[in-house]
Design brief:
It holds the Pfam family ABC_tran. By secondary structure, the protein is of the alpha/beta class. It has a domain of about 170 residues: P-loop containing nucleotide triphosphate hydrolases (Rossmann fold), CATH 3.40.50. The protein is built from nine helices and twelve strands. It is globular, with a radius of gyration of 20 Å.
C-alpha cells in the first residue's frame, strides 16, 4: 500500500533521517519504534506531508507519488492522528468529527445528517460515547483518543498513522483502543503505529520496524521475535555485540 525508499531529511546540521526504507501492506499493523531522537516523528511528518523529505521515493500502491503538503497525503488516502490529538475542546463530538468536512444544504450546516452519521460511526466502531453532542472537553482520555481516530476515518483512508495513541491512557482505555485498531486492520486498513509500549506492540503489531539515529536498524516479525531482540535493536546493543564478536565465532552467541 505504502513504500518508502531511501528517505532522507536534514534540519540544518542535523541529519534526522538517512536512507530509510519502510513498507506497509493493506490489512497489517507495523509498529515504528526507536529511542528518542531516532527519527520516528520526522518520518511520520514526511509521510503525512508536514515535513517533505529532502531525498528518496514514496510509492503509493506501486507508483511513485509526491507528498509535499498534508493535502497531498489526505488526497491519496493517508490519515494521521498525532499525539496531541489536535481537537477543538469547545466543540462537541459531532463538530470535531466533521471539522473541515462539514455537510451543508444550500449553504446551511446540516446538523441532523452530521449527527446521524456520527451516531452510526460510534455504533459501528463500538465507541462508548452515548451522546455525540457532548463537548470533547468533558470526555475521558480514551474517549478523546477514540474521537480523534474516528475523525481521521471520515475521509475513508487506506493508511492510518498513529503517533503514541496509548501514551496517556489507562489499562482499560488502552485495551479498547487496541481492539479498535485491530478492527480497522481487519477491515483492510494499513496501520503504522509509533509506540514505546512493548506490550501494545506485541499485542497488536504484525511487524516491527526499528529506527536508530535516523537509520533503519531492524525489521522483525512480532510472532517470531523476542521482546529482548527488539529492545537490543532499539538501544544498539545488538550492533555492539556484532562489532565485538571474535573472528571465527560466527553463530556462537553467549
Amino acid at each position: 500500500m505504502l513504500a518508502l525508499r531511501g528517505i532522507s531529511k536534514r534540519f540544518g546540521g542535523v541529519q534526522a533521517l538517512m536512507d530509510v526504507d519502510l513498507h506497509v501492506r493493506a490489512g497489517e499493523v507495523v509498529a515504528l519504534v526507536g529511542d528518542n531522537g531516532a527519527g520516528k516523528s520526522t518520518l511520520i511528518k514526511v509521510i503525512s506531508g508536514v515535513g517533505p523529505a529532502d531525498r528518496g521515493v514514496i510509492e503509493w500502491e506501486g507508483r511513485a507519488v509526491h507528498i509535499k503538503r498534508p493535502h497531498d497525503a489526505q488526497a491519496l488516502g493517508i490519515a494521521t492522528v498525532y499525539q496531541d490529538l489536535a481537537m477543538c475542546d469547545n466543540l462537541d463530538v459531532v463538530g470535531n468529527l466533521f471539522l473541515g468536512r462539514e455537510i451543508d444544504r444550500l449553504g446551511i450546516l446540516d446538523e441532523v445528517e452530521m449527527e446521524r452519521r456520527a451516531r452510526e460511526l460510534m455504533r459501528t466502531l463500538a465507541i462508548p460515547i452515548p451522546d455525540v453532542r457532548t463537548p470533547v472537553a468533558t470526555l475521558s482520555g480514551g474517549q478523546r483518543q477514540a474521537v480523534a481516530l474516528s475523525h481521521s476515518l471520515m475521509g475513508a483512508p487506506k493508511v492510518l498513522l498513529l503517533d503514541e495513541p496509548t501514551a496517556s491512557l489507562g489499562v482499560e482505555q488502552t485495551s479498547h483502543l487496541l481492539d479498535l485498531v485491530e478492527e480497522l486492520r481487519d477491515r483492510g486498513l494499513a496501520v503504522l503505529l509509533i509506540s514505546h509500549n512493548m506490550g501494545d506492540i506485541k499485542a497488536i503489531a504484525d511487524r516491527v520496524a526499528v529506527l536508530r539515529l535516523g537509520r533503519n536498524n531492524g525489521l522483525f516479525d512480532v510472532n517470531t521475535t523476542s521482546q529482548e531482540q527488539i529492545i537490543s535493536s532499539i538501544t544498539g546493543a545488538a550492533d555492539n555485540a556484532v562489532a565485538h564478536r571474535t573472528p571465527g565465532t560466527e553463530g556462537a552467541w553467549p
